[in-house]
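Entry 14. Ran structure prediction on the chain below.
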Amino acid sequence: MTAVGRLRAVNLGRVAALTHAKGVVDSAIIKAPATGPVAVGTLGVAGDEQGDTVNHGGPDRALCAFAAEHVPAVEAHLGNPLPPAAFGENLTTEGLLEDEVCIGDVLEAGTALLQVSTPRTPCYKLAARNGEPRLAAWVQRTGCTGFYLRVLEEGEVAAGDRVALVERRHPALTVAEANRVRHHERHDHAAARALLVPELGAEWREAFERQLARA
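Output, structure tokens:
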């Protein structure tokens, strides 16, 4: 195994009312760092919730990871400091960037075994959480999206745990590559086909299949 990063924080949130441009919605995007080890199961972190179980959660999206390295750029864009877990992520990471992490990567964090499934798709809740209506568009444009993980083996994770690469099945299929093909270069049908690997999460698989069907 090769050490590739570490967990800066493990974050949990409960469902609460979130005000956005068109009203109020239930969301658990507001999270806070946990103290000590936290159990991780196939549907997520113990004590964490999802307000929208259609677009969040499930086995392909058990955990959301976001790189601490992106925080300075986001703060510069917003013009103010970010609170902890400002992107609603379960895992605030170091050393796990979108142009280095690949779809299907198997990672060991704490005593859990995780697998990269898809990039995170930014939405209006991210904008509402941080008071910037155009934040989702900025995230999509810059590629500072973070990514989702499925849980292959349950265990415990904690702030400070190292993250090790156990297996890399698709070295050309980075999270950044998936973002590029879905959001910026939809005409690249060969790349879209290449991304249809078994480890890719269902929502992104369906998006690429629709993209190819329109070709």
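The mean pLDDT is 93. Will compare against last week's run tomorrow.
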